[in-house]
Design brief:
Largest sheet: none
Number of helices: 13
Number of domains: 1
Radius of gyration: 18 Å
Helix content: over 70%
Distance between the termini: 15 Å
Shape: globular
Structural class: mainly alpha
Length: about 280
C-alpha cells in the first residue's frame, strides 16, 4: 500500500511536470495507453486474460465516463495548483462517498459520521479559503474531481460484484485513451526525448501504483492497509519541494490533518466490506 501510494504520487508529479509543455489530452492519451499495455502484460503473464471480459456493459460504460471526467479534472488541477494542495484536497473524496452512500446505496449515516464529515469539509475549506484574498477558483477543480470520483467509486462498488479489478481498470484506461486521442487536432505537439521518458515513467508508475494498491487490499483488511494511503500527502509535499520548491502553506498544514482524521474515522468506523469490493474502489 505504501509503495502503491508513492507510485501514484510520483505519477501525479510527472504528470504535473508534463502539463507545462503538453496539452492535457495528449498527456491523458500517453499515460492511459501505457496503463493498458501494463494491464495486458500482467494479465497475460498470469494467464488470466479472461479477467478482462465485460459482464456489465452499462456499469462499465458509466464508470469509464466518470473516470474520464475525474481524471481530466485531476490533471487540470495539477497544472494549476501546487502538488501537495491538490493531493490534500482530493482526500475529501471519502467524505463525499460517506454522504452519497445514504441516498445511493441505502447505507445509514449516523451522527458521528456526520460530525466526521463536517470536520473533513472544514479542513478542505481551510485549504481552499473561499472568500479570502488568496482564494483561487482553480482550487475548486480538485473539489469537483473528488466529487466526480466519489460517484465513480460508488459505481465501482456496485459493479465489482461482477467485474474483476483488472477489467475495471482496463476499460477505464481504454476510455481515457480514446478520449485523449480525440483531442489530437487540438494542439498536440511532438514530444522531445525528455518528455517521452517522463510520459513513459508517469504511465508505468500509474499502472504499478494501482496494481500495488489492489494487491495490498488482497493481503489484508482495509482497516489495516487503507490508512497508509494518507502518506500520499507526505510524498506530495516532498516531491513538490524537490521539483518545484513548493512549500505547503500554513493553511494546508492546518486543513490536511482534519481531512485525514475525518477520513480515517469514517474508514475505521465503517462495517468492513469484502476485500474484493474495497480493492476495486481504489482503481483509476
Amino acid at each position: 500500500m505504501i509503495l502503491g501510494g508513492a507510485a501514484l504520487t510520483i505519477s501525479d508529479a510527472a504528470t504535473k511536470y508534463l502539463t507545462s509543455s503538453l496539452p492535457i489530452g495528449e498527456i491523458l492519451f500517453i499515460r492511459a495507453l501505457l496503463v493498458l499495455i501494463i494491464i495486458w502484460l500482467i494479465t497475460s503473464i498470469r494467464g488470466r486474460l479472461e479477467d478482462l471480459r465485460i459482464r456489465s456493459i452499462g456499469g462499465q460504460s458509466l464508470r469509464s465516463f466518470l473516470a474520464v471526467c475525474s481524471t481530466i479534472l485531476v490533471v487540470t488541477s495539477l497544472s494549476l495548483l501546487p502538488l501537495n494542495e491538490v493531493i490534500a484536497i482530493l482526500f475529501v473524496g471519502p467524505l463525499f462517498i460517506a454522504i452519497l452512500a445514504g441516498p445511493l446505496l441505502g447505507e445509514r449515516v449516523g451522527i458521528r459520521r456526520w460530525v466526521a464529515i463536517l470536520i473533513g469539509f472544514g479542513g478542505m475549506l481551510i485549504i481552499v479559503r473561499p472568500g479570502s484574498a488568496a482564494f483561487q477558483l482553480a482550487a475548486l477543480i480538485p473539489v469537483a474531481a473528488a466529487l466526480v470520483a466519489s460517484f465513480r467509486d460508488i459505481v465501482t462498488r456496485e459493479i465489482s460484484v461482477k467485474e474483476s479489478s483488472a477489467a475495471i481498470l482496463f476499460y477505464s484506461s481504454l476510455a481515457l485513451t480514446i478520449f485523449g486521442l480525440t483531442t489530437l487536432p487540438f494542439g498536440w505537439v511532438l514530444l522531445g526525448r525528455e518528455e517521452i521518458i517522463v510520459a513513459i515513467f508517469a504511465g508505468v508508475m500509474f499502472g504499478l501504483g494501482h496494481y500495488f494498491i489492489i494487491e495490498g487490499f488482497s493481503y489484508a483488511e482495509a482497516s489495516i492497509v487503507a490508512p497508509y494511503r494518507y502518506l500520499n500527502i507526505v510524498w506530495a509535499a516532498i516531491l513538490g519541494y524537490l521539483i518545484w520548491q513548493e512549500i505547503p502553506s500554513s493553511w494546508t498544514f492546518l486543513g490536511a490533518p482534519l481531512i485525514v482524521v475525518s477520513g480515517l474515522y469514517i474508514l475505521l468506523g465503517e462495517k468492513m466490506v469484502p476485500s474484493k469490493v474495497v480493492s476495486s474502489k481504489n482503481d483509476l
